[in-house]
Amino acid sequence: GRQIWQAKTQQAASAAAVSEADQFKTTNAERGTGHKTQLKKVVGDLFSLDFIWSCTTCGACNEFCPLEIDHLSKIIGMRRNIISENNNIPEELQQVFHGIENCGNPFALRRADYPDNLRWLSETGCATFKEKPTAEYLLFFGCQALFEQTAQQAAKATIKLLQTAGLDLAVLAEAEWCCGDPARRTGNELLYQKTVLRNIAQFTKLGVKKIITLCPHCFNTFKNEYPQFGGAWELVTHTALIAELIAKGKLTLPQDHKLPSLSSADKVKIAYHDPCYLARYNSLTTEPRKILASLPGFELVEMPRNREKSFCCGAGGGRYWTRLQQPNPIIKNRTEQALTTGASVLVTACPYCHRVFQEELARRGQEHQVSVLDIAEMISLD
Ligand code: SF4
């Protein structure tokens, strides 16, 4: 069997060599006749701009490819090419870059113009690093929690849980600056690296040693990419930390939930959506399930695409900002997958997934049928 295999591969190799030689002859013949071969550009000709900007960077192609071809880095490479030529950059993306560079967030909102935006934070009583420079943990919110109400609910719930467990933590509040992930995913490597160096300088000055993240995108870049630039801290996601605190008996699971839709005496079905940057990029799939499966009164149900094989929400890779005016077929499909489980609660652990699920359910008029919650909210609803 092994010999046949060898002979076959040799045959295939010589066939390939012949066809390469033929190509070469043809090319020389073309040269001889003065005929010009029309070269196609990779960006724009072979791959349309729409294709290049469509990628959510979910990583599913890399996960599923039987030949382990790294499609994703090629797509990011093409985006970098577009950015370096400063041509064909979508208008919304230019705003995102401007926002990260000048305001420290992709929304391009100046914090000084929104003084009430962090009022919820002062209500939690959580100190800032300035007030408590010896804090053991930095709780890094991510830009969503600084400006979006949905993510603020999750942040509030997380603070409440961590305070209950007695953790010594502080936040940066208005001093927090984007982690840079949106810049890197959309090909603006220069802006990404500038942002990284700025954050490393700030964290070093403050003496940060341990970081808790709410957003999987911040977690992924802090943990897996910042070390390339000299930034290295002990990193933990809020999901993993909550699971650990429950396991150690420092947090107890709520016995009674006050969500209006959950008054039934039967067990309520709950589905968990794995965010790509937790499940596929960082293999964090067991902890959220452990938490949810042990909640009294709930039955954890799975969508067919789960864990590392999860199905993207469609918001990553810059699409959250660039595709606002266009339908998002990815979240439409994923929401349908969630609805077919019969779950009345959909839990996730990413502010981007959270937000686009809510938008899609509202678009369908089904926002009262399914509650979308962050995992921290789910645990603190008692
Ligand atoms: S959207 Fe996901 S599966 Fe499609 S090319 Fe991008 S990373 Fe790959």
Task: Report a brief summary of the structure.
This protein is 49% helix and 8% strand. The protein is of the alpha/beta class and 382 residues long. Among the domains are: 112-245, Rossmann fold (3-Layer(aba) Sandwich), CATH 3.40.50.1860; 253-380, 3-Layer(aba) Sandwich (Rossmann fold), CATH 3.40.50.10700.
Q: What oligomeric state do the depicted chains represent?
A: single chain
Mean pLDDT: 89
CATH class of one domain, anyone? Answer: Alpha Beta
Radius of gyration: 24 Å
Describe the global form: globular
β-strand amount? 5-15%
Report the end-to-end length measured between terminal Cα atoms.
64 Å
Helical amount: 40-55%
Provide the CATH topology of one domain.
Rossmann fold
What is the annotated CATH architecture of one domain?
Answer: 3-Layer(aba) Sandwich
Low-pLDDT sequence parts? 1-10, 12-25
Class per helix and strand makeup? alpha/beta
Give the number of DSSP strands: 8
Instruction: List the ions, cofactors and other small molecules found in this model.
Output: iron/sulfur cluster
Counted by DSSP, the helix tally is 18
Give your account of this protein's structure.
- The protein has 382 residues and is an alpha/beta fold.
- Among the domains are: 112-245, Rossmann fold, CATH 3.40.50.1860; 253-380, AF0625-like (Rossmann fold, 3-Layer(aba) Sandwich).
- It has 18 helices and eight strands.
- Strand 3, helix 11 (216-225) and strand 4 (234-237) form a beta-alpha-beta unit.
- Helix 11 packs parallel to helix 13 (276-282) and helix 12 (238-247) packs across helix 14 (286-293).
- The protein is globular, with a radius of gyration of 24 Å.
- The chain starts with a helix and ends with a helix.
- Residues 55-61, 71-72, 75 line the site of iron/sulfur cluster (SF4).
- Iron/sulfur cluster binds at residues 55-61, 71-72, 75.
